[in-house]
Amino acid sequence: xxxxxxxxxxxxxxxxxxxxxxxxxxxxxxxxxxxxxxxxxxxxxxxxxxxxxxxxxxxxxxxxxxxxxxxxxxxxxxxxxxxxxxxxxxxxxxxxxxxxxxxxxxxxxxxxxxxxxxxxxxxxxxxxxxxxxxxxxxxxxxxxxxxxxxxxxxxxxxxxxxxxxxxxxxxxxxxxxxxxxxxxxxxxxxxxxxxxxxxxxxxxxxxxxxxxxxxxxxxxxxxxxxxxxxxxxxxxxxxxxxxxxxxxxxxxx
Length: 253
Known about the structure:
Residues 1-35 form the signal peptide. Pfam families: ChapFlgA, ChapFlgA_N. This protein is 18% helix and 35% strand. It is of the alpha+beta class. The protein folds into three domains: 40-119, no CATH class; 121-190, Antifreeze-like/N-acetylneuraminic acid synthase C-terminal domain (Type Iii Antifreeze Protein Isoform Hplc 12), CATH 3.90.1210.10; 194-252, SH3 type barrels (Roll), CATH 2.30.30. The strands form four sheets. Strands 1, 2, 3, 4 and 5 form a five-stranded antiparallel beta sheet that branches. It has a five-stranded mixed barrel with strand order 9-10-12-13-14. Strand 12 (227-232) and strand 13 form a beta hairpin. It is flat and about 75 Å long.
């Protein structure tokens, strides 16, 4: 009789435990399993797009190295269903420490700015002698020197973007006095003045299919394509014209 009672007590406790277990299972919320990770934009793909863009933007890819700064792993961006758009961020240079803007248009638009470091080993142009402000850039002034351009290059940081292809800049004027041995960079140069104050100029007047020309005097300096005031010698009138080439301006009506 006692053994039977013990069995009954054990059975009752087991049923209560089973009931509690079932109740707990019913109360536990069920969360759906999602493919959230698969819907995120790959950070490696963003870095790859940046690297390709920066490399393609270099005037020469010889010796170019691009190190993309690792993106924060906590960044959650929607998977882009089209190729990523890449641009230089406003104010970014193309060598040294650079910043690239990466955008996605759909399905959920987003934009990030990715920092990178670009270095390049190659030749730059160095002045063989000092020049004065207003002197014109001439091939005889330059010698080649091999350097490593990048964020750690003091000359690049202090002087600005170096000129690697000198041909388009020949004939430009120096905007400042520069000593011998300095690396040639874009900040040093400006378009040379074709017209100088007091120069005798030929004024061309083009209006309604008519082309006339007369003599005049320039009242200020002007580079190619820039506006300049000139005085018509015949009439004494002052007119606004555009510097066309050395000694020639055109009045457009």
